[in-house]
């Protein structure tokens, strides 16, 4: 895994202050992402923290919430702020990865179908080999046209559209066994 980096997307305190926040899947997410990060660190895989920043509200730098969630104890190799849904646009991430000859990205973080999925798609288009670890991502139910997709449906949808096109879908255990 020497040419690999773990991209930890938006696992930040800002989400605690959103009206859609819920604890339902949070404990499982904490366990999965903590195990993944610790396993990558032991294997010498750099962890890259990405934080979403907005002009106002809980995602603004002024809010004080653009910081790692309290359970995270790792030391990131590097940290980038993003202002859009993917971790590449205007962040310097691509340059940082290429200057270290990293060609494989493991994606985890918040929200499964938004910033994590979008980053996976862009990374694939940029030529990276992408592994998406759904169990180490978190999301919240979404409603459109009167139909609500729960977290499991959103996760399944993301896996369906990514697998074989933009990313390989793996579990934490499968990643750490590589």
UniProtKB/TrEMBL annotation:
Organism the protein comes from: Kosakonia sacchari
Record-annotated Isochorismatase-like domain positions: 4-161
Keywords, in A-Z order: Hydrolase
Record-linked Gene3D superfamilies: Isochorismatase-like (3.40.50.850)
Keyword Hydrolase: yes
tRNA-binding among keywords: no
Protein name as it appears in the record: Isochorismatase family protein
Pfam families xrefs: Isochorismatase
């Amino acid at each position: 895994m020497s040419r690999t980096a773990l991209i930890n997307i938006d696992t930040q305190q800002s989400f605690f202050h959103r009206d859609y926040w819920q604890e339902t899947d949070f404990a499982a997410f904490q366990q999965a992402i903590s195990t993944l990060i610790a396993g990558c660190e032991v294997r010498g895989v750099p962890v890259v923290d990405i934080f979403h920043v907005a002009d106002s509200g809980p995602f603004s730098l002024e809010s004080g919430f653009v910081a790692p969630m309290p359970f995270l104890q790792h030391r990131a190799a590097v940290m980038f702020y993003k202002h859009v849904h993917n971790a590449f646009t205007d962040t310097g991430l691509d340059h940082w990865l290429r200057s270290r000859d990293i060609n494989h990205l493991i994606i985890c973080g918040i929200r499964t179908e938004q910033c994590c999925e979008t980053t996976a798609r862009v990374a694939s288009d940029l030529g990276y080999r992408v592994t998406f670890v759904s169990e180490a991502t978190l999301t919240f139910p979404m409603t459109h046209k009167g139909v609500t997709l729960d977290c499991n449906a959103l996760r399944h949808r993301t896996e369906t559209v990514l697998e074989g096109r933009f990313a390989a879908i793996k579990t934490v255990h499968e990643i750490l066994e590589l």
